[in-house]
Write a structure and sequence with these properties.
The protein is an alpha/beta fold and 225 residues long. The chain has seven helices and seven strands, in the order ααββαββαβααβαβ. It is globular, with a radius of gyration of 19 Å. A seven-stranded mixed sheet has the order 3-2-1-4-5-7-6, with helices on both faces. 42% of the residues lie in helices and 23% in strands. The protein has a single domain, classed as Vaccinia Virus protein VP39 (Rossmann fold), CATH 3.40.50. Bound molecules: S-adenosylmethionine (SAM). S-adenosylmethionine binds next to α1 and β2.
């Protein structure tokens, strides 16, 4: 291949990588913030978070949409997200709500915390988009203290055959535009398989969401004491 052709190809590769970076770091956080602060999600966030106590870790913090819904007694949490583009949103929301957030850019597949470090771990609309769900659940179990609680509010595989077929059809496109989001994960089954004791589970379709994206798994599971 001639040197000039190589240059053009390399240039095209670099610019497409930059576009991915620009989309992920600048556009995606704005879109995510718009989608995830929709009022119809608020009551579910509030209900989930009403029981959280102690040292709290939230994984996949996004733009901090849960912050307004933490109960008043929560003054400080630790939060991680793999996308640094979320940070400006988090800073704004943290000031407005008055909760101290130790916010780290980190990967849920390798949490930068020692074993048994937290009393409570929270994920909302996050387990759909991690690459290896088993690995992440293993990490959650590792950093949760024995007897600690894992609270989740996640979407996934619908039990209706017609909806599930549509979810499978939409999955490739959805992954591409929505930051790797998978539509067909069986969240509660995976949580149990990871060794947690499932103590509460509610399944429902979230209001005003397409059924393909709105079948929810909400509840908590305990790490064996
Ligand atoms: C759909 S958003 C949900 C954000 C927030 N939890 C909420 O309820 O609005 C999913 C978030 O998970 C984050 N995420 C995806 N994979 C991750 C990983 N491996 N480690 C940490 N965060 C991750 C994304 O960057 C994104 O902010």
């Amino acid at each position: 291949m001639s040197r000039s052709l190589k240059k053009i190809r390399f240039g095209a590769f670099q610019s497409s990588r930059n576009n991915v970076g620009f989309y992920t770091k600048k556009i995606l956080p704005c879109l995510l913030d718009l989608a995830m602060t929709r009022p119809e999600l608020g009551s579910h966030r509030r209900q989930l978070l009403s029981g959280v106590t102690g040292e709290i870790l939230e994984i996949g913090f996004g733009t901090g949409a849960n912050l307004p819904y933490y109960p008043k007694h929560v003054k400080e949490i630790t939060a991680i997200d793999s996308n640094a583009g979320m940070t400006p949103f988090v800073q704004r929301r943290m000031k407005a709500r008055g909760v101290q957030v130790k916010h780290l850019e980190a990967d849920a597949h390798a949490l930068p915390f020692p074993e048994n470090a937290f009393d409570t771990i929270v994920t909302t609309w996050t387990l759909c988009s991690v690459e290896n769900l088993d690995r992440v659940l293993h990490e959650i179990s590792r950093v949760l203290r024995p007897g600690g609680k894992f609270y989740f509010l996640e979407h996934g595989r619908s039990p209706e055959g017609r909806v599930f077929r549509l979810q499978r059809l939409l999955n490739p496109l959805n992954r591409t535009v929505a930051g790797g989001c998978e539509l067909t994960r069986e969240i509660s089954t995976q949580v149990k398989l990871a060794g947690f004791e499932l103590e509460r589970l509610e399944n429902f379709y979230i209001e005003k969401f397409p059924r393909t994206h709105g079948y929810m798994f909400q509840g908590w599971a305990r790490k064996s004491p």
